[in-house]
Amino acid sequence: MTHQILTLPGDGIGPEIMEPTLELLEAVGDFEFQEHLFGGASIDACGVALTDEVLADCRRSDAVLLAAVGGPKWDTTDPAKPRPEQGLLGLRKGLGLYANLRPVKPLPALYDASPLRRERIEGTDLLVVRELTGGIYFGEKTRTATSASDVCSYTTEEIERIARTAFAAAERRSAHPQVTSVDKANVLETSRLWRETVSSLHSREFSTVELEHVLVDNAAMQLVSAPRGFDTILTENMFGDILSDEAAMLTGSIGMLPSASLGDPSTRTPGLFEPVHGSAPDIAGQGIANPLAMFLSAAMMLRHGLGLESEAAAVESGVERALAGGLRTPDLGGEARTEQALKAVLDNLE
Question: Among this protein's residues, is 217 annotated catalytic?
């Protein structure tokens, strides 16, 4: 069976890490790729970060693979001007992708690359489940010359569906599943609703999963002081955005973290798979970008988007074996170029 993959190289290093990823995918399966402009590249060509035509093609695909968006060229504080990130928000909303999964598992070969001591991160294996289409990023916004506001709003339905995703993910990950729900219930009314709704769903449907509630500032401290204590972290949009980037540094480089954005499994909506890092315009065009997070995002696409578990495991194993064999890109303290990283992973595919 040939799988239809829509690719969005985007901006900065995006095209440089997309190309080797497609070569890697062709080594493990049968795919057809359709490329479209997205983000800043789409703003330059079409005036908007995401066109209706691209969104329609995304809906018709089996999965969407995105590399990176944004850059100083398109930075603006003018609300009337388009920004590359608007394409990402529009894609999530347009595809109904309300759940973002970010696994964080430092590899033994990179323990010493982490800013934290080896003994602190050793054995860490956690998953951040972030709500993607609600909260302050999508709430009503106002702006005058002297004031501004952003409304944070959640419904019980929005909270229940992301909590259900987190509980189910925790059950798949461990024989003793644990979910840490992160909020700010001591201050925010939305967090109080969040905590009540998560607790209610837990008691009705997932009572065998251990549940704890942690305030977001405490969670941020625990991520660097005792990351092994986390299994599955469930949280709302903005908190998840911040905590997942913090957790990324446990691996030694944000260039190592993949992500998957998923919708309602009953609707067969294509998922969106992308590395956590940005477009790194400072190194674009030099051939030194680390493609490993992009490779691992492709692995998440194989597993969560296409149901190809053995192919996903092969890619992940190839990355881990390449690193164990000494592969290091500049962000990991080495000198390997993008093309050398691809060759190392291909050489280690089982």
Answer: yes
**Which is catalytic among the residues 105, 125, 150, 184?**
184
Active site residue 241: yes
Whole-model pTM: value is 0.88
Question: For residues 276 and 136, which has the higher predicted lDDT (pLDDT)?
Answer: 136
Specify if 277 maps to a domain. Answer: yes
Residue 288's CATH number: 3.40.718.10
CB atoms < 10 A from the CB of 80, how many?
5
329 SS3 class: coil
Q: Is 183 a catalytic residue?
A: no
- The rounded distance, in Å, linking the Cα atoms of 9 and 11 is 7
Are 171 and 212 found together in one domain? yes
Domain boundary among 207, 235, 251: 251
Q: For residues 26 and 81, state if they share a domain.
A: yes
Residues 221 and 241 in one domain: yes
Q: Which of 98, 111, 137, 154 is catalytic?
A: 137
Q: For residue 226, give both structure tokens.
A: 């005792």
- Tell me the pLDDT tens digit for each residue of 90-116: 998 899 999 999 999 988 888 887 888
Q: Are strands 272-275 and 258-262 parallel, antiparallel or unpaired?
A: antiparallel
Do 236 and 273 lie in a common domain?
A: no
Write down the catalytic residue from 57, 125, 150, 245.
Answer: 245
Which candidate in 105, 125, 241, 343 is catalytic?
Answer: 241
When mean pLDDT is compared across 137-141, 184-188, 339-343, the lowest value belongs to 137-141
Lay out the sheet containing 272-275: strands in order across. 31-35, 3-10, 63-68, 272-275, 258-262, 99-104, 126-131, 232-235, 178-183, 210-215
Annotated active-site residue in 44, 52, 217, 347: 217
44 flagged as catalytic: no
